[in-house]
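Final report, closing paragraph on structural work. Over the funding period we assembled a curated collection of sequence-structure pairs, and we close with a single example.
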Amino acid sequence: MSEGITFLGAVAEEKFRDQTGAEKPHENFEGDAILRGHPVEIKKANGGTVNQVRPARYTTLAIYIEREDTWFVIPPHEVVKLATLRSRGQHTENPFECMALTVKHLPSRFKLVRPTPQQLLARALSAIAEGEEHIDVKNKMATVIGECSRMAAKHLTQVRRLLGS
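Its predicted structure, as stored:
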């Protein structure tokens, strides 16, 4: 029986939390780990693709490649920058809502091969700090989420009215 996409990253999430001392979040929208008060989104890449990356959430992204014992730890503004290279998202028109990444195209400067727990922690804290230096991008992503939510609500209301539901 294969793992569903929702539970695919559980091993990576647990490994990241164990190695960095991060906490398990209380709610899903808080990311997969809370490291010193900051959410971190954790993905496991079994193949060459990382699915359902959500740049607009503006969280540090940690990607674990189990077969190589390798991590990519990417600051949130860099995740947003990767989204700007796309004309559309994964299952959506807006690349800031959701996108897929290809592991072989990830910048090597974010790669840690068989890192010690101290190296992983240091890189994650550095990525969080780098992201906090780009408050203008963080604020823009909050605007993107707000606009997407308002647009979705507006269209749901209109379509429900058209369908009489």
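The chain has a mean pLDDT of 92. The radius of gyration is 17 Å. We thank the funder for supporting this effort.
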